[in-house]
Amino acid sequence: MKRMSLKTGCIILILLSVALICTPQGAHAAINCCSDNTCWWTGGGYCSRGVLDFGSIDPSSTGNKMATITTNQYFTCGGNRTWNASYTPASLTLTGPVGGSIAYTIGYTASSSCRGTTETLLTNTSTIQQTDYQDAPAGNYTNSSVVTFTITGDGGAIYPILAVASDVKATIINTCGSTASGTMSFNIDPSGSGALTPTTTDSGNTSPSIKCTKNSTHAVSCSALHGNLSIGNDGATDPIAYTVTTCGSSNSITGSGFSTATSIPVGLTIAQAAYQDAQAGAHTDTITVTITY
Predict the structure, then answer these.
(1) Do 244 and 226 form a contact (C-beta atoms < 8 A)?
(2) Domain ranges across the chain
(3) What is the pLDDT of residue 87?
(4) 121 near 110, Cβ under 8 Å?
(5) Is 28-172 a domain of CATH 2.60.40?
(6) Prediction pTM value
(7) β-pairing, 118-120 with 74-76?
(8) pLDDT 10s digits, 85-99
(9) What phi and psi values does residue 275 have, to the nearest 5 degrees?
(10) What is residue 71's predicted lDDT score, i.e. its pLDDT?
(11) Is the dihedral of CA 135, 140, 146, 151 positive or negative?
């Protein structure tokens, strides 16, 4: 739940506090190999089933996500040989909810040499970039293509090492964070007529804002501290009653991801009878905006 406060009147300040609780979710990649048990250079070699673990993916966090190697991808080769590794397709992508995709890379040794030894292929550099996960909608993701490694050496192509990587998975959690305050400031002419309808979207004003997981919808509520603009913000000195009429978009907001803040417009209505006998001077009050996710 997020809370933010907003003062209304001649001089206004929105106060915003953050309470963020994230529940870690698992994300891992299981990499298979050698379905036909023919991964060898000479003789009866073998290979393993490699497993990568990307861990929890919180789109509000910063930095790249590095996979850990649960089980390395390895194989055997005979003789004193130099080998090279390459994989297809060139671009690897996890796909999830509508509009959601996450690019990732697999870290591996591109070339080495062996003397009848066991060779490990995966390195601790498999990565999901921050720019690729920060705007991903919440939900479960799986890889969109099969990954095939090919080992080449003295005699050319030997055998594919990675047969499939269809178990690549990731979960983007639904969260909010990175809040910012806003302002609402307006003049009241007591000689005027009709109701006043100031908003945080009027010229010179700014709406409070928050960053949330992309495409996730959250309820928004606004509550006034006193319900009166007053001198000294005490709610009693020369009070001007008002009503909050706008709080987000139909009392909800939809996240834009963590590269873009989502604005929360706030609007008021002040009846003519409430301001026509008001004293000159600054009148303020505080509105608390709450986002539930």
Answers:
(1) no
(2) 2-20+176-292, 28-172
(3) 81
(4) no
(5) yes
(6) 0.73
(7) antiparallel
(8) 888 888 888 888 888
(9) -115, -10
(10) 73
(11) positive
